[in-house]
């Protein structure tokens, strides 16, 4: 059979085209020029990335210098107070000493002569051994404490091409694995080893939804123009995606100045440069940091809950009605077809790049079997994978 989106020959019964990503509905318009040659097939398991020594020139670092932490003042101390009996006679002196000793024992042992200093609590009432400012062991949890030095999250000795697990980076209760793409002075460039979700590059607006739901509408990419700076995927990556990360992990993700170049093949405008904690790779970057097309292959293994959530999003997306009417309003149908698609390609899937595609209403992507699709896919497709990238601070 042939893809009804790009015209290339594909496996009979395939739910998705391995070249353009198009779902096999009956009336989808073309996105990828027919003359584009298909990329070579990729193995199921991508090989490890080689080491790179050249630092990325397109994404400079915006390092942050936190203000110094001032240690708390020493705890308060009370005055020493001697207690003496009045000497009247040897008997009176002895009696006075006995009385004083009995009296001071009743009051808790603070008495005359060389005694321990009185500990003065910060508030009126019983002395709180856990109160900040106590005399004795320093409270490591007290407000105003001097913080422990931050320990880098990347293990010592890690090198480019390694795949590491970073505790504190979670998504759907799964601790994420990251591939090290580059290490330079003070920071490391990482990308998730697997696809972590499927999302539209830019969510459909109410105005765009009205177009897509019009039976007489013919799809025009110019009606869906966006850039990386404006798209909903960028906003999601730098907000909701990070909500399951712990504070230590978020604190070591560097703010990065991201340069958004035009499409190198078609000249489509890349839009304004941005400052992001999390971003997608560009066409130039993915070609730079991955050794081959096969090295770009990424798999997606969602949990049952995540797959259900994805299917729900697809079923509510008006673009689904235009591209595949079976999915619109039917999350179960979307879920079943996605599952079949994963089975067809052994989990390997397409994933977004931030660069624009051939149209301003499209974005570049990596094919399911590896290789860059400069022409890209329509930004309304919400079944394309996401592989977040970021710079992590290596300095303690």
Spell out the blueprint of helices and strands.
Elements lengths: L60 E2 L27 H17 L56 E9 L2 E11 L2 E6 L4 E2 L7 H7 L19 H6 L9 H5 L3 E4 L15 E3 L1 E2 L3 H7 L8 E2 L4 H13 L1 H6 L7 H14 L3 E2 L1 E6 L5 E5 L5 E7 L6 E2 L2 E5 L3
Antiparallel strand pairs: 1-6, 2-3, 3-4, 4-15, 5-14, 6-7, 8-15, 9-10, 11-12, 12-13
Protein traits:
single chain; 396 residues; five-stranded antiparallel sheet; three-stranded antiparallel sheet; 8 helices
Can you describe what's shown?
This protein has about 400 residues and is of the alpha+beta class. It has a domain at about 60-65 and about 155-395. The chain is about 20% helix and about 15% strand. The protein is built from 8 helices and 15 strands. It has helices at about 90-105, 205-210, 230-235, 245-250, 285-290, 305-315, 320-325, 330-345; strands at about 60, 165-170, 175-185, 185-190, 195-200, 255-260, 275, 280, 300, 350, 350-355, 360-365, 370-380, 385, 390-395. The strands form 5 sheets. It has a 5-stranded antiparallel β-sheet. Strand 11 and strand 12 (about 360-365) form a beta hairpin. Helix 6 crosses helix 8. The longest helix has 17 residues, at about 90-105. The chain starts with about 60 loop residues before the first strand and ends with a strand. The model is unreliable at about 25-35, about 40-95 and about 100-150 (pLDDT under 50).
